Amino acid sequence: MIGLRPNIAKMAGYTPGEQINDPAVVKLNTNENPYPPSPRVFEAIQAVLTGDKLRKYPEPSGISFRKAATRVLGIDSESILIGNGSDDILTILTRTFVPEGGRIVTLTPSYSLYKSLAEIQGARFQTVAFGPNWSLPAVSAIPPDTSIFFLANPNSPSGTFIDIQKIAAFIEGLPCPVVVDEAYADFAEDNALRLAKLPKVIVSRSFSKSMALAGIRFGYAVAQPEIIQEMIKVKDSYNCDVLSLTAAEAAIQDTAYVTETRSKILATRERMQPALEALGFQVTPSQANFLWCRRSDRPVQPIYEALKQQRILVRYMQYSDYGEGLRISVGTDAEIDRLLSCLHDII
Fold this sequence. Notes:
Layout: H1 6-10, E1 26-27, H2 39-49, H3 63-73, E2 80-83, H4 86-97, E3 103-108, H5 113-121, E4 124-129, E5 148-152, H6 164-172, E6 178-181, E7 201-206, E8 219-222, H7 225-234, H8 242-253, H9 255-278, E9 282-284, E10 290-294, H10 301-309, E11 312-313, E12 315-319, E13 323-329, H11 333-346
Parallel strand pairs: 1-11, 3-4, 3-5, 5-6, 6-7
Antiparallel strand pairs: 2-8, 7-8, 9-10, 10-13, 12-13
Helix pairs in contact: 2-8, 3-8, 4-5, 4-7
């Protein structure tokens, strides 16, 4: 193809989880929240639809959302950058910090988008194995010429969580900016927002999971104001539309609703693990809204395919350096009952 960049021609591209818009399908493959967004979100969007905002450009920095986030999280509004989902935040970070030929490093297995971001940027991509029991590796394992280090915490696909104090000590020895990708942090026992005060740390957050807004596309970054100012230079002028900004502002302020749905998800996650283990799966203890399930007695891809035949979607994932597994999102109790019943019949 004329003019096509060689690195783009070579790359496979990121593959999202399968999307089937059929209410009869139990969708446990993309870690969506099984409960609807806050009622305040619907009220706020309705007000926008009946007003005059849609014909005008949105406020480019999302100042109203940033002020709401400041009230809820206690973070300086100048330390917040809005994004069209956390994937947009990760793209902005790559464009800001990684030169062509630079190096992106992450742990393995982890979020596969990081590799795609490196390939798009024309950068080198390197993975480093987790330490024992999903711990951090030695600092010496991270190359000194690393341009940026991505750390998903909780991690996907494992759902494992690394203690924040251990992350802080690890970051201290690294030669590069560190992104703590907290797409699932609201389901964990702690978070890294306090580390965003450090001069080389950026925390990335998503509204797709705990806020139940995967369809609206909103995320944000938290870092020192000087870092945010540099990221603003490379973001799209209006990267968040009026509806996403409105929904995000309403959602982040309804803390009681988020706490309620979080409690339901954690309770279901708690009962899923022993039920899946009773069916022969090795289940990694999770602090996210999904479970990573493996087997030593048989391949799991046929189980994934059999579930799909029963109109239940889970995520089959395979890693060259780690093997295969099923990542199963936490659904409603009724959805999980159906999953467990089908698995019992299959296995």
